[in-house]
Every structure is written in structure tokens, then in C-alpha cells.
Amino acid sequence: MKIIKTKNYDEMSEKAASIFISQVNAKPTSVLGLATGSSVLGLYENLIESHKNDKLDFSQIKTVNLDEYAGLSGTNDQSYRYYMDNNLFKHINIKPENTHLPDGLAKDLHAECKRYNSEIANLGGIDIQLLGLGLNGHIGFNEPDDIFVKETHLVDLDESTIKANSRFFADEKDVPRQAITMGIQNIMHAKKIVLCVSGKAKASILKEVLFGEITPKVPGSILQFHPDLTVVADEDALSAIAL
Ligand code: GLP
Fold first, then answer.
1. Which ligand 1 atom is the nearest neighbour of the CA of 131?
2. Which of 26, 78, 195, 236 is the most exposed place for a label (fewest CB within 10 A)?
3. What is the pLDDT of residues 74-98, one digit of tens each?
């Protein structure tokens, strides 16, 4: 595991973006595994800048996102499809058909999980996977559980996740109770993983994830087994870890 400690959120975003920029330049046909949330927003701004100023080319890039809320359409401003379209895709030269997210409106959500799982395989696997970290240690929407779920699945969101994510919704009752998420195996099969973590509130869970017991009760702890994990985190997020 490699840990890159940054002064603040902006530096974290720049450093993490530079890893993705190198990936796109080195392999213009890469499959990028992408994430949503506030931790990765700055990274996307850097990618957009790099596309505008340095002609970073996404024309052959394919993307596959970690997760999507059940019951929200892609035009709902709280859906992860909407987030990706507006915070990245529409600002770069990626082909819309090369961007993949689960369909939160699918009639049969279990069938949609199966379809998405095959889609990841059909893309040939993920070259580099971006991750944020939930306050309860979740990655994607793999919530604390008794087992690690391997493949894409439908998940009941934790009360704590519903609370944490309610900050983006008008009312807590508007937060969907279920989501489709890639499973732990989908994530762990990525050739390279970049985990972005920022802020004091994540300091203790980040310590558990990186140095605690490997257990499905702390889903992110499985990342300790990944052969190519880079953690890009700011001083606040790393404040519980002596480096
Ligand atoms: C959501 C997403 C996760 C994300 C997490 C952290 O629940 N499903 O993929 O990593 O939130 O979000 P933030 O970066 O906003 O703290």
C-alpha cells in the first residue's frame, strides 16, 4: 500500500487526478472505475481542466461507476448518473455510450445487478478504480455486513449512510433506502485502486480500514489485500495514523 499525504483537499484532488491523467495518457483505451461523493469532486475538476488545457483525450476511454440509488432516474439531480454527467462527462470528450452506471429505474433490480456484473466483465475488467470512503467504512455501497458480497448486488442502505447522505437531499425521507453497488470482488479485481479520503471526520475509520482487522464489518478493510492500492488523503484524514 502506498499512502500519499497531502496538506488539504485541493492537494489531494490534484495528486489523485495526476494518477488518473497518467493512466489515460499511458493507455488511452483504459476502463476507469469511477465513484461519486464530495471526496472525488475536486479530482473530476482537475480532469476537466486537463482536458481543456492539455487536451487530455477521453475519446476511447470507458467508464464504469461503482453504484446507483434504486428508484432514481438519471435526470434526478440526486442520482449518480446525474452527478457523473454534470460533474465530469459533459465537460470532456467521452462518448456517452462508453459511460456505464447501474439503472436505478430497472423494473427488476436483481436482474439489473446481473446485467451490470456482466457488463463489467464484458468491458474486460477495470484498469483503475477510484474510491471514496463512507463514515462507516463502506466502499461503493458495500455496507458493514457479516459477509463480503462478491458481485454487483442490491443493498439496503445503513441508517448511518442514509443520515450522512441526507445532506444532499431536501429531506431525509427523500433518501432512497436501497442502492445497486458493485461487489467487493468487482472492486478488488481492478488492476489498481486509488482511495481518496479527506477531513477529520474520516480519521478514525481510515485508520481502521488501513490498519485494523480485515472484516466485512468494515468493508474497506479488504483493501489491505489489494496488491496495488494508493491512498491519497489529507493531513486531517490521516491525523489518527502515525506516518
Ligand atoms: C456515498 C457513495 C460512496 C462514497 C461515499 C463517501 O455513500 N456511495 O461511493 O465513497 O458516499 O462520500 P463522500 O466523499 O461525500 O464523503
1. 10
2. 26
3. 999 999 999 999 999 999 999 999 9
